[in-house]
Structure formats: C-alpha cells, structure tokens
Design brief:
mainly beta, 17 strands
C-alpha cells in the first residue's frame, strides 16, 4: 500500500484497486437452503397447531373398531340417553359376522319405551356430514332398532335416522328439547340378526337417507343448522350391534 504523495499542503493517498464484493454470490445457495428450512418450520407449526382433531374434521374416517379392546367401552365415545329409564350399556363385542370380528354393542334391556341410548363419537363435530353404518338388531321385546344421529348438540337436540326390525320401517326424526318428531319415513323389510347398512347425509337443510346402499327418501328441515357430533342410537330394550362406521365431512 502506498502512503501517498504530497502536493503542496495536501496529501493524496492512493488505495489499491479492489474487486467487487462477491459475498452474496457465494451466499445465494445458502439463502435457498435457509428458505427451505424456514418453510419446513412453518409447515411443522401448522401441523402442530392443527393437531389430530384438526385433521379429523376433514375427509373420511372409518372408525377402527378392530383396534378396540373386546369387553371394554368403545374408545373415543362418550355415552348419554334421551328420555327416561336407565343409561345404555355400550361395549366392544366379538362377532364373527362383523367386518373385523368386533362390533360396538348396546346391551341394556331396560324396557322403558321413551328411552334412547346414545354413543357419541367425540373426535368429529360437523354440520354437513355423510355417515354410513352397518347395524344388526340382535334382540328386544319392545323394540329392535338401530340408528345414527347427526348435528348432535346434546342428548336432547339432534337429528336421527333409525331402522326397526319389529316394525319393518325406516324413520327420520328431529329431536328438540328431548321431544322427538318424525319428519319422513318409509316401509322396508328390516331383518333381525342380519347386517343392514344405514346412511344419513346432511347438507344444509337437505337430508338424504339410504338403506342397504339404496336411497330411500329425502327430507328438508332448518331447525338445527350448526355443527354437532355424530352418534350411534338405539331405543328401549334394543340389543343392537354396529360396525363399519364411516364418517365423511362435507364442505
């Protein structure tokens, strides 16, 4: 480095020529890596915040009865009752004719007529939902019924479709403040001790009911419009088994 030359009273310093700074060029690949890492962190945060329940709200869920313990209460369910009489008794039962060899069964034989045991599936809450379930009416003197409820706010407010092997019909009800009111129905053969598929699709004010894979009827109602739980349903002394419970949330 030159110390400079003196011209009159001023000293002029001469600095060596420098090359343009190339640090950003050398760092650019690192910036791309940092960007990728940052995006991964953001995605991980979103997943963590959503949690299992967040993902349970979209798409289709087939309840894994085969992962449940025989003789125990079914996992991820809570239990309630509409009407009078004793509580329901829900357990996982061995059944060689079930899809996975296990079914969810209501075994109480309390004969109180206005009594509707519920097994409420906790992980899902939705307004628009498509639910299908297989059920088998095993026994019952007062009733041999099985059903599925949607938009369940509590044990006294929900919609339910049920099939009855003693009456050979399928009925769709609105339950408000514990009072059940029929909205629509159809007569069809419901055989005891045989598996049948029952479906309920709720979209806005429109409800579509299917039985054994065929559309049976539709109904419209605006009473309960918000999100609610999905539940299995029986009546009076019905001993009923359920399997292949599929819940699909809709936009």
């Amino acid at each position: 480095m030159s110390c400079g030359t003196t011209t009159g009273t001023s000293t002029i310093y001469e600095l060596p020529a420098s090359k343009p700074f190339s640090g950003f060029e050398s760092l650019s690949p690192n910036f791309a890596s940092i960007r990728r890492i940052f995006a991964a962190i953001v995605l991980a945060c979103v997943v963590a915040c959503a949690g299992p329940a967040g993902f349970a709200q979209t798409g289709a869920i087939m309840i894994a009865i085969d992962k449940m313990a025989p003789g125990a209460a079914p996992a991820d369910f809570e239990f309630a009752r509409t009407g009078q009489g004793g509580p329901g008794q829900w357990a996982v039962a061995a059944d060689a004719s079930a899809a996975t060899g296990l079914a969810i069964e209501q075994t109480s034989t309390d004969r109180t007529d206005y009594r509707f045991p519920l097994a409420i599936y906790r992980p899902v809450s939705a307004s628009n939902v498509d639910v299908t379930v297989r059920f088998k009416a095993v026994a019952g003197k007062v009733d041999q019924a099985g059903g599925v409820a949607v938009r369940l706010i509590d044990a006294d407010n929900y919609y339910v479709v049920r099939a009855n092997a003693l009456e050979d019909n399928v009925r769709f009800y609105r339950v408000v403040k514990g009072r059940r009111e029929e909205l629509e129905g159809a007569n069809t053969k419901v055989r005891a001790n045989e598996w049948h598929q029952l479906g309920l699709r709720a979209e806005g004010q429109r409800f579509t009911i299917t039985f054994d894979g065929k559309q049976l009827f539709t109904a419209t109602d605006r009473t309960i419009v918000g999100a609610g739980k999905v539940a299995l349903w029986t009546k009076a002394d019905s001993v009923t088994r359920f399997d292949r419970i599929e819940i699909r949330t809709l936009p």
